[in-house]
Design brief:
- 71% of the residues lie in helices and 8% in strands.
- Strands 1-3-2 form a 3-stranded antiparallel sheet.
- It is elongated.
- The longest helix has 52 residues, at 68-119.
- It has helices spanning 12-23, 30-37, 41-53, 68-119, and strands spanning 28-29, 57-60, 63-66.
- α1 (12-23) crosses α2 (30-37) and α1 runs antiparallel to α4 (68-119).
Length: 120
């Protein structure tokens, strides 16, 4: 029996979006931000300084705030993530189509080889 955990892998863009999205609803202390963005402490400690350095968020006392630049970045990330999902769906459909075509050609090849063998 195989046990699997539902550990979803998020891209760095998705993580930054979730942080900025959580802060777009209002200022939060670090712990609440971690819960709202579904982050571990380690991931939080990696991304908060980065977002502060690029001017996307600011910290005042114990609260984190999104800046105007952060709101703009959030909107761009939202568009990027949506487009990336659309591309992923198109690529999956293309892969399925190619597999079906390959399977159909494989069936034809097997039939053709049987016909050739039976003619002998």
């Amino acid at each position: 029996m195989r046990i699997s955990f539902n550990k979803r892998k998020r891209t760095e863009y998705q993580i930054m979006f979730q942080i900025l999205d959580a802060l777009s609803r209002g200022p939060l202390p670090k712990t609440k931000l971690m819960y709202k963005a579904d982050l571990t402490y380690v991931v939080t400690e990696k991304y908060l300084p980065y977002l502060q350095n690029i001017g996307a968020i600011k910290k005042d006392k114990d609260l984190y705030y999104i800046t105007q630049r952060g709101q703009e970045i959030r909107n761009l990330l939202e568009t990027y993530i949506r487009k990336a999902e659309e591309i992923k769906k198109v690529l999956e459909e293309l892969r399925r189509t190619i597999e079906m075509k390959n399977n159909d050609e494989g069936v034809r090849t097997k039939r053709e080889s049987k016909v050739i063998k039976s003619d002998r």
